[in-house]
UniProtKB/TrEMBL annotation:
The lineage of its organism: Eukaryota, Viridiplantae, Streptophyta, Embryophyta, Tracheophyta. Gene3D superfamilies: 1.20.1280.50. SUPFAM superfamilies: F-box domain (SSF81383). Residues 5-39 form the F-box domain. It comes from the Eukaryota. InterPro entries: F-box-like_dom_sf (IPR036047), F-box_dom (IPR001810), F-box_SCFL_complex_component (IPR053197). This is F-box/FBD/LRR-repeat protein.
Length: 183
């Protein structure tokens, strides 16, 4: 094989999907834009795992919301979604106005994941973004019934619950519930 030859195109889709599962979603999409020679330009739309993190250079919450909305909207209809992870840090962008203003968007992301028969659903922050402050209402866990025959793992870190109980009776396959620093 000549030097500089394209070896990535020879890899099976399942392997490329596995590699994509370790990368933040914005890196997967960016890489696909650079890879028009490969079939990666379309492969990300059926990736079975999405890891949403802050985006370098995108400190504007509406920019972030548009990215995630488009990420989900452009997925292939019926594509399997095994894992959906939202992993954010306060340094990613200015969160104070973000969480209360965009709760509806996050609710829709959760609903999309549940409708896509997600097995692993995770919401994690590392700096207490969801802690209640008098000057801004808390971001609360989505007002989406958590009903899924497929959900096996639910991880919540720094999320505020709407009530003292979290009804997971509609998740018969749930084997792992992990809650850290939740209010």
């Amino acid at each position: 094989m000549a030097s500089g030859a394209d070896r990535i195109s020879a890899l099976p889709d399942e392997f490329l999907h596995h590699v994509m599962s370790f990368l933040p979603a914005h890196d997967v999409v960016s890489t696909s834009l650079l890879a028009w020679r490969w079939h990666w330009h379309d492969l990300w739309k059926s990736a079975p795992a999405l890891r949403v993190t802050g985006i370098n250079g995108c400190t504007d919450p509406p920019c972030f919301i548009r990215f995630v909305d488009n990420l989900l909207l452009l997925r292939h209809p019926g594509a399997r979604l095994d894992a959906f992870v939202i992993d954010l840090e306060e340094r990613d962008f200015y969160f104070k106005p973000f969480l209360p203003a965009y709760e509806r968007s996050v609710n829709l992301w959760f609903r999309h994941a549940l409708l896509s028969q997600v097995r692993i659903l995770s919401l994690r922050t590392t700096s207490g973004l969801y802690v209640y402050k008098e000057e801004s209402p808390p971001f609360e866990l989505p007002d989406v019934p958590i009903i899924s025959q497929h959900l096996t793992r639910l991880h919540l870190a720094r999320a505020t619950l709407r009530s003292i109980t979290l009804d997971l009776s509609g998740c018969p396959a749930l084997v792992e519930l992990k809650m850290e620093g939740n209010a």
